[in-house]
Amino acid sequence: MDEHPPADGVAPEHAPAGVAATRELLRAAAADGRRLLPCGRRSRLARHFPSARPDGWLSMRRLDGLLWLDPEDQTCEVEAGMTPAALDALAAEHGLMLGVDAPGRERGTLGGVFLAPDHNLRGALWGPPRDHVLGARWLLADGSEIRTGARVVKSVAGYDLTRLLVGSRGRLACCVALTLRLVPRPRRPRCFRLERPVAPTAAALPEPPTWMVRPPRGDVFVATDGTDPRPRLDVAGEEVDPVAGEAALEAVRTAFAEAPLRVALTRPPAVWPEGCALDLAGRVVAADTAVAARLVADDPEAVVVPHSRPSPWLAPLARALVPSGARFHGIS
Question: Each residue of 86-103: pLDDT tens digit?
Fold first, then answer.
């Protein structure tokens, strides 16, 4: 087992090399009354758990394998510690990709992408991250293993326990593997620089853009699969090398990773906020507290993440899942 000892009072990090070793570690922690907190590489914890002080971190970073990939069904199962970039490289061999674009592609884990509440930079085309999780494999706080969901895209398995556990951010169960839906990779990508922000809709374009972003300091960039969006959007601009567009998208990923808040708007704002990274297709803004407050004042139905209010349901659900009393950190 890869274990980092504590330094200056910081809790130790345990990084088991497999599911069996993870199970044994959880059983030992439960017997000792220690409360662990599952994580990946902790790249998102500063935002979602800034004050977390568990007895130890349970890192999934060494569980990073591809278990299977079905190109015909466009589905796969991966261990939770794999990075989005690694999955993207494997799926590209089959003309596929993950339809979720979020910060931390190179360093963060897929478990973190789906268990930390976030927005999808390609959400206008492919929907929120949770829509891409078909099922998962979990370890409970006492080491018990459960599976949720199904391998197929359309399932009638009843109550969706997968979404319940994904939304708990590791406080109800430790995710060791995910069954994911993949999407076709654009075959003729074209990228354009536009002169001003626009708010595209399904009616405004022959097809939704694969993405449309504005970095904190820069122009608006839009990418499509072989179409030219400018006439439909009634906006001037120029076609650019896809490398330039990808650089703009990476700048937005970086800004979203560094911003304390993300705000998903229900309608375009009267004035686009300056100095903020924007996912224009999904109308998501990476913002500080002051900008977020102004946006919510104009759009009261806007959704801000991370959520600051504690859930009253976590403790009862934890008791229902593990009656013996073993708990992860963060459950009272």
Answer: 999 999 999 999 999 988
Rg (CA), the chain: 21
CB 53 within 8 A of CB 11: yes
Domain C-terminal end among 153, 185, 217: 185
Tell me the whole-structure pTM to 2 decimals: 0.88
Distance from C-alpha of 267 to C-alpha of 265, rounded to nearest angstrom = 5
Tell whether 49 is covered by a domain: no
Torsion angle of the four alpha carbons 187, 188, 189, 193, in this order, in degrees rounded to the nearest 10: -170
Measured CA to CA, the distance from residue 257 to residue 26 in angstroms comes to: 30
Q: Torsion-angle region of residue 283: left (phi > 0), alpha (psi -120 to 50) or beta?
A: left
What CA–CA distance (Å, rounded) separates 66 from 58? 20
Ordered DSSP codes for 293-325 = HHHHHH-TT-EEES--SPPTTHHHHHHHH-TT-
How many folded domains does the chain comprise? 2
Give the separation between CA 35 and CA 25, rounded to whole angstroms. 11
Query: Which of 164, 185, 206 finishes a domain?
Result: 185
Domain housing 156: 66-185
pLDDT-derived band at 7, boundaries 50, 70, 90? very low
Tokens 């919510």 sit at which residue? Answer: 296
